[in-house]
Amino acid sequence: MTTSRKSAGNPPEKVSGNKVKTKSRIVPAGKMAGVPEKSEKVSERKGKTAAPMVPHPGVSTQQQGKAGRPFWSGTITIGLVNVPVRLHTMVRDLSVSFRLLHKADGQPLRYDRVCTKDDRVIPWAETVKGYEVRKGEYLIFEPEELKAIMPESNRKIRIEKFVFYLSLDPVYFETSYILTPDRSEEAYNLLRTALQDLGRAAIGTITLRTKEYPVVVHAYGGGLVLTTLRYADEVTLPRAFETLEGLPVPKEAELTLAKRIITDLSGDFSMTDYHDRYREAVMSLIEKKLAGEKVVYVEPHPEEAKELMQALKETLSTLSAK
Question: What is the CA radius of gyration of the chain?
Fold first, then answer.
């Protein structure tokens, strides 16, 4: 993606991949359009304007790998053996988050609890939880009723069995967390070493907030990792799709070429080879708009559709030329 700075008499260069054609405008939250703030006057007196700090594209504002505080503490229970542990967040979502603003003054919008019948804002004290049993018909639940059936939070990871880690289907993996010892270094490392040497993982359950999860605990990166699992009825398997029944048998020539392409592209996997290019592009766009640059979107040309055999041959020829 290329851009150009705005200058008198020079139109902006065309770029692709950005659906933006506008001058940058920054309106601080809480400020009415057209009303200057004190900080702006001070900056003008000093002869310069302070620019907001923007993270460099592709670089997190937080130190990568920084250990955060635990959000849960309890014990790993295996029969009569208890290993006190703490649970830490392992996965962070670094997706770009946009706020919805009022176009006229650039101020953020908020959402209220509006009753669909009365068309008025309802305070929290007048709200209850309900379950829709038929269209427009709800069962109302009191807090005490839901509290009575809530899973028991006994601060335990109850281990029920051990399995080979590689036998687990990753489709059922949900969210991973880091387990650290809670003044139980000896027992913690004993469990970690035993699991690692045997290539096994522990299967059990844990209650987090209001839900009980099946979990797998396994050795990873010098520690123990707990991963919550999805229940069987939460996962749709491929056999549920009729279009996958009776697929045509591949032609021998096409299958041979496909296998050659797969073989030529085979290699070692490293997650660091991949980056969120959209997030990096958004952060780069933010920097350009702050610098006063103008970006114009250009529609990309669609790729030409080719016959399967022709596409296979051209792909293999391209790989052989490298």
Answer: 28
Residue with tokens 């991973």: 176
3-state percent breakdown (helix, strand, coil) of the chain, nearest 5: 30, 25, 45
Three-state SS at 5? coil
Supply the angle between the helices 252-264 and 308-321 in degrees, to the nearest 10: 30
Q: Is residue 52 part of a domain?
A: no
pTM here is 0.70
320 with 267, same domain? yes
Instruction: Select from 184, 211, 238 the last residue of a domain.
Output: 238
Q: Which domain holds residue 171?
A: 72-94+158-238
> Is 177 part of any domain?
yes
Tell me which of 171, 203, 238 is where a domain ends.
Answer: 238
Number of domains in the chain: 2
pLDDT of residue 310: 83
Distance (Å, whole) CA 69 – CA 82: 22
End-to-end CA distance of the chain: 25
Q: Residues 80, 188: one domain? A: yes
Mean predicted confidence (pLDDT) in 170-187: 97
In the Cβ-directed half-sphere of 1, how many Cα atoms lie within 13 Å?
A: 21
| pLDDT per position as a tens digit, 218-233 | 999 999 999 999 999 9
Residue 223 to residue 191: CA distance in whole angstroms: 10
What pLDDT is attached to residue 64? 60
- Asked if 201 and 232 sit in the same domain, the reply is yes
Are both 175 and 306 inside the same structural domain?
no
- Residue 143 CB partners (closer than 8 Å, separation 6+): 129
Helices H, strands E: what count in the chain? 6, 9
Give mean pLDDT, residues 205-210. Answer: 91
Q: Is 268 helix (H, G, I), strand (E, B) or coil?
A: coil
pLDDT tens digits, residue range 40-94?
433 343 444 433 433 434 444 444 667 889 999 999 999 999 999 999 999 988 8
